[in-house]
Amino acid sequence: MPREMEGYHEQLVRLSERFPNREAISIKECCETLPLNRRTILSDETFPVKRVSGKATGKYIIPLVALARWMCQIDRK
Question: What distance in Å separates the CA atoms of residue 36 and residue 43, rounded to the nearest whole number?
Fold first, then answer.
């Protein structure tokens, strides 16, 4: 069984406290939480953003579990 990354559980708990009863957040909410702008998020190929509708609308979500994992990877660099 793979081992959790160091700090993953703590990041997930913090995100879950900030966004209770949520599995995913919007790009706007992510930008308010992290010091990143929309263009940075969408241009980073490692960022866990998911498109939820067609290209024309530009709607995306960020799953909290994937965001916590991404935040731990960034901490390691």
Answer: 11
